[in-house]
Structure formats: C-alpha cells, structure tokens
Amino acid sequence: MKVLKSIRILEDKCVGCRACLDACPYNALYMQGKKVKIDYDKCTLCGACISKCKFEAIEMQKQAGFESAVSLKEAMGVWILAEQKNNKVQSVSYELLNKGRELADELKVDLTAVLLGSSVKQEAQCLIHRGADKVIIVENTILNHYQSGPYSAVITEIIKKYKPEIILAGATTIGRSLVPRLAIKLNTGLTADCTALEIDKKSKLLLQTRPAFGGNIMATIMCQKHRPQMATVRHKVFAEAKEDENRKGEIIEEKVSSELLNTDIILKDIIEEIEETVNITEADIIVAAGRGIGSRENITLIEELAKALNGAVGASRSIVDAGWVPYSHQVGQTGRTVCPKLYIACGISGQIQHLVGMQSSDVIIAINKNPDAPIFKVANYGVVGDLFKIIPALIKSIQSSSE
Ligand SMILES: Cc1cc2nc3c(=O)[nH]c(=O)nc-3n(C[C@H](O)[C@H](O)[C@H](O)COP(=O)(O)OP(=O)(O)OC[C@H]3O[C@@H](n4cnc5c(N)ncnc54)[C@H](O)[C@@H]3O)c2cc1C
Fold first, then answer.
1. What per-residue confidence (pLDDT) applies to 269?
2. Best residue among 353, 389, 390 to mutate for probing ligand 1, ranked by most atoms within 8 Å of CB
3. Residue of 34, 97, 277, 369 with fewest CB within 10 Å of its CB?
4. What is the whole-number distance in angstroms between the Cα of residue 188 and the centre of ligand 1?
5. How is the chain split into domains, by residue range?
6. 330 lines ligand 1 (CB under 6 A)
7. What is the pLDDT at residue 278?
8. Domain 78-259 CATH superfamily
C-alpha cells in the first residue's frame, strides 16, 4: 500500500554497510552517497531489511488510522456470510457452515451466520439446522438482491458491533465483490480462494491455504495483527454441512439506519443466463471440452453427450478465450471449481490451471489422442484416441441402453 510509507531510514544511525540492500527481495533499497534510501514505488513493507540492520537504522512506523476496526483483544467467534437468491439460501453457505463449525468447535466459540435479504427469517432456521448457533438477519427490500454499497455498509456495521475473529465467505461472484470491500472498510486482511482452512494449534490463528504461482505451490497465510481474519472459499471445495432439524439456535434481527442502505447504483433488472444444460457448479456429471474439439461448431458434440448423461458442459480456458463457449462454463483456476461425481475431459491436455478446478471430482475420465497428456495422471479411466470417433460411439451406446 503505497500510501502507507511507514518505513524509514534513520540517517543518523545508518553507516552505509549495505547489509539491508542484499536482504531486500524487491530491490527497493539503494545507496545515495553513504546512506541507504528507500524506493517507495518498489517497497512492499515486508520488513525483511529491518532484522538485517545491526545498527537499528530502519524503522517501521505504525501510522494512526491503520488499526483494524475490530481489536485483537475483543475479537471472538466465527462467522460465515450466507448468500441467498430470491430469499433462498445458496448451497455455498452450507459448505461454509461445515468448515465454520469445525473451526468454531476447535476454538470453543459460537458459529454465527449473517444473512441479508428482504424476507429471510424462514431461511435463518435452515442455517441453524446446518450448524449455526446464531443467525443475524437484516431484512429490507433494498437487500433483496446483492448490491455492493448497501451490503458492504450493513455488514461492516454489524461486524463493528459484534466483533468476530474469523469471517468466511464464498469465493462466488457476490463474495468476490463484497469481501474485499469489507477488508478495506475494516482495515484487515483477506485471503481469497482458499482450498484449506484450519486453526494453528499453538497460536490459535486461522491458517488459510490457497494455490499460488499458478497452482504450483500451496501458500499458507496468517493474518496475525488484524481482525477479523477473513477468507473466501470456492464453491464445492468443502462438503455441505448435514441437516439436523432438532438443532436449536438464536435468530437476531438487526435493524440498520436508512443511510447504510443508500446506493448510487440503480438495479434495473436481473437477467438469468439461459442454460440448455445444467449449471456446472451444481452438476453431478460434467462433460468438458478443450481445444481438441477443434471448432465452435463441434461443441454440439459435447452438448449432445452432456444431454445424454443429464449433465452440464464444462470447458477449458482455451476454448472460452476463443469465444467458443461462455465464461460461465470455464473450469479451473480462473474459472469455476467443480466437484461432480463424474468429469469427462474431452480433448483437454490437463494443465495445472485446469486441474485445480476439477481434480477433486469423484471419477475422472479423460479422452485424449496423446497418451502422454498430463490429464491422464489425474484420470481414473483414460481413453487414448480420437474424440470424434469415441464420443459419437458413447452417445449411441448411452441412447440405445436407455431405450
Ligand atoms: C494465470 C492462468 C490462469 C489460467 N486459468 C485457467 C483456467 O481457469 N482453466 C483452464 O482450463 N485453463 C487455464 N489456464 C490455461 C492453461 O494453462 C492451459 O493453457 C489450458 O487449460 C489448455 O487448454 P486445453 O487443454 O483445452 O488446450 P491444449 O493444451 O491445447 O490441449 C488440447 C488437447 O487436446 C488433445 N486433442 C487434440 N485433438 C484431439 C482429438 N481429436 N481427440 C482427442 N484429443 C485431442 C491434444 O492432445 C491436447 O492434449 C490458465 C493459464 C494461466 C497462465
């Protein structure tokens, strides 16, 4: 954050030994005469130079205004931000409750779900049945559909009031818009797209693990000095919490001031994408196409197989970038994470960025003419051959067996 130039060289102490220059991974330090200077355009405030300076000539200043809205001492409890569509809780919220319950039990604190909408009291009960101890609801017609302004203002307000220590949200279209806004308003950190979350036994901090550097390493991130610790999790990474209709919990109805609901954006209409086949994140069976399909026209072959199996059409980024299939079908690091019972990869090479989005599928079948294609390393069943011969034969056999 360039605005926080909170590191400085104490010139009276600096002897120009250059030890800090070697320690800086960002090349942000340079010599001017016999003194070290900081290039603030390069400095990320990582602090690697500070411990290398034997003369205590580098100082990290804590600027006023960089405190979190929730203090370390006060923060308590695990929250999940539930999502609703047409006042119906979306399944990603149940996945968050499953992981949230585990974390709350480990910390011996309450699990709270937050749900905004126009008429969501009934649904709050479902969140309790799936593991929440408390549900905070805010009802208003303006909150019927997600809108970044009112949603982030209202949730910030209730976070400041109740001061949770951990907040989990879906890495969905809504979560990706909402949670960074909360992080800025609350002055805290956020780890996006986590694939694993656990509590560190010693420090009791949230260990937030996510793929980094194109999926080649897994990075575990901690938010040590700010609260709440916030993480988004992709849909289908965790299993849904099981329903127990006997569970009891508390529903808290929060009223918010009308100022928080003000927005400059007028929501005129919501147009649903018309899908001939089912939505990929909810599908039990996905037939996915890659560049091996050859052209936009040939996608019909994949659609036919998906229809025959009552499944959805997935795609690699190559064919989404080529404009053959809409983005909503893309599987992978920059697309959706899916976890169907059956994933059939047709003409997909299996680069890491694709695999991170589908490798937890129950059964993977790969059809590829190259026996060395990396997709075969994750496939349970591999068919080496031309998809234009294999897929029509498959469709024929499925159709004749269902007659
Ligand atoms: C930051 C970043 C993010 C990315 N995010 C994603 C992502 O979210 N999702 C994603 O998919 N990719 C992503 N990519 C791109 C990824 O690296 C690959 O380029 C892409 O997945 C390759 O797509 P493909 O397998 O369809 O194409 P290719 O790699 O070109 O593979 C085509 C395959 O089809 C096979 N084939 C050809 N003809 C036939 C035939 N007739 N019958 C059978 N097999 C045939 C070939 O043997 C080959 O294995 C990302 C890349 C970067 C750098």
1. 86
2. 353
3. 34
4. 37
5. 7-60, 78-259, 285-402
6. yes
7. 64
8. HUPs (3.40.50.620)
Dump pLDDT digits (tens) for 58-80: 998 766 556 788 988 999 999 99
Cβ of 359 closer than 6 Å to ligand 1, yes or no, is no
Atom of ligand 1 nearest to the CA of 387: 42
CB 139 within 8 A of CB 168: no
Q: Using CA atoms, how far apart are residues 57 and 59, in angstroms rounded to an integer? A: 7
Which structure tokens are listed for 104?
A: 């709350």
CA 344, CA 364: separation in Å to the nearest integer? 6
Which residue positions in the chain have pLDDT lower than 70? 1-5, 62-66, 214-216, 273-278, 403
Tokens representing 390 are: 């294999």
Q: Select from 3.30.70.20, 3.40.50.1460, 3.40.50.11540, 3.40.50.720 the CATH code of 7-60.
A: 3.30.70.20
DSSP per position, 10-65: -TTT-----HHHHH-TT--EEEETTEEEE-TTT-----HHHHH-TT--EEE---TT
Say which CATH topology domain 285-402 has. Answer: Rossmann fold (3.40.50)
Instruction: Indicate if ligand 1 lies below 6 Å from the C-beta of 66.
Output: no
Ligand 1 contacts CB of residue 316 (under 6 A): yes
pLDDT for the residue 276: 54
